[in-house]
Write a structure and sequence with these properties.
Elements (H helix, E strand, L loop, with lengths): L12 H4 L8 H10 L18 H5 L19 H4 L27 E6 L5 E4 H7 L3 E8 L4 E11 H8 L7 E6 L19 E5 H4 L5 E6 L2 E2 L9 E3 L12 E7 L6 H5 L23 E4 L4 E4 L7 H4 L14
Parallel strand pairs: 1-10, 4-11
Antiparallel strand pairs: 1-2, 3-4, 4-7, 5-6, 5-10, 7-8, 7-9, 11-12
């Protein structure tokens, strides 16, 4: 008999799932069939490869994994879709229109470095080869605002296992596209383009690390970082790189764009901590988008029970942005 041990972020489903986001019976059955039994409790499944973007898009909505719920209401899409950081398309939050210049097909993920087989993988083949699920996550920006999002995608660990890094690899370095013609923000000379971020192999293998391909039951909107982005809910948002086009396995710690630009303000680890202020503002509270309320910020954004162990023995490191 299987017993489900409740996780620290869980609530009863009837308090975590708004009515307008509950899947229809038809969608649920269709999604379960596509997954060969579903992924409600994280079961592994590898569906047939997709031939076209339309086939990939048709996988949505993904079946929700009930192990990942929230302690607050979801932020409405009408709010999150028009309030975005995506510096490739401008420095304001109102970049959703400009981001439509992003061309997401064809999209190829290049994989190199300390890996068994360097290669290039088409996004649709990659998405079809991965297990699929929806998770509800909190998101905390280093700028002291927050939101809650229903992300669709697959565990980062599944991607790492699929790509087969060598045992000598210690970090996963990720890079977004570089195309100043498509992304006018990349013409700004004072940013070290392209956007780069990285995590340790251990962080990538954590259950919470999630590769995102959709949101709100649909393929990922361009302003969210389509077609492939990262979600690390216990870290400040700048670590969750958008529009990933390259992954390199390496034994050298990657230097992210913001760390390269201003290392005194943005470090490698960037874990959320309300007790450690940003040099220019407090991190003790956060503004919850769409509510006009401020709430206390939680250590590791409320996920401490599940990620704090990653940082044992690293107390001398600067673990917070």
């Amino acid at each position: 008999m299987h017993y489900h041990r409740r996780q620290g972020w869980e609530l009863p489903e009837n308090t975590a799932t708004p009515e307008h986001l509950v899947m229809s019976r038809r969608s649920l059955l269709g999604g379960a069939a596509a997954l060969g039994g579903g992924l409600l409790l994280g079961a592994s499944s590898r569906p047939a490869l997709a031939a076209t973007q339309a086939e990939t898009d048709a996988f949505h909505p993904y079946v929700r994994n009930p192990a990942y719920t929230l302690d607050r209401a979801l932020t409405e899409e009408k709010v999150t879709s028009v309030y975005n950081n995506f510096y490739e398309y401008g420095t304001s939050k109102s970049i959703s229109a400009a981001a439509q210049q992003l061309n997401v097909r064809p999209w190829v993920l290049k994989v190199d470095g300390m890996v068994e087989k360097p290669r290039e993988i088409g996004i649709d083949d990659l998405m079809a080869a991965m297990p699929r699920e929806e998770r509800l996550y909190r998101f905390r920006c280093v700028e002291a605002w927050s939101m809650t999002i229903p992300w669709s995608g697959f565990p980062m660990k599944a991607l790492v296992d699929y790509l087969k890094p060598l045992s000598s690899a210690k970090y996963v370095r990720m890079e977004t596209f570089y195309d100043p013609k498509m992304a006018p923000g990349q013409r700004a000379p004072f940013y070290p383009w392209p956007y780069v971020e990285g995590v340790t192999i251990e962080e990538a293998a954590n259950d919470l690390a999630f590769i995102v391909t959709g949101a709100y039951g649909k393929p990922l909107a361009k302003q969210f970082g389509a077609p492939l982005r990262l979600a690390l809910p216990w870290k400040y948002g700048f670590k969750s790189i958008k529009s990933i086009s390259k992954i390199t396995f390496t034994d050298k710690r990657p230097v992210g764009l913001w760390e390269a630009l201003q290392s005194s303000e943005y470090g490698f680890w960037a874990n959320v901590n309300p007790e450690v202020s940003h040099p220019r503002w407090s991190q003790a509270t956060e503004n919850v988008l769409g509510t006009n309320t401020r709430v206390p910020t939680q250590l590791f954004n409320g996920y401490a029970e599940h990620v704090a162990g990653l940082y044992k023995g690293l107390e001398k490191e600067r673990l917070w942005a």
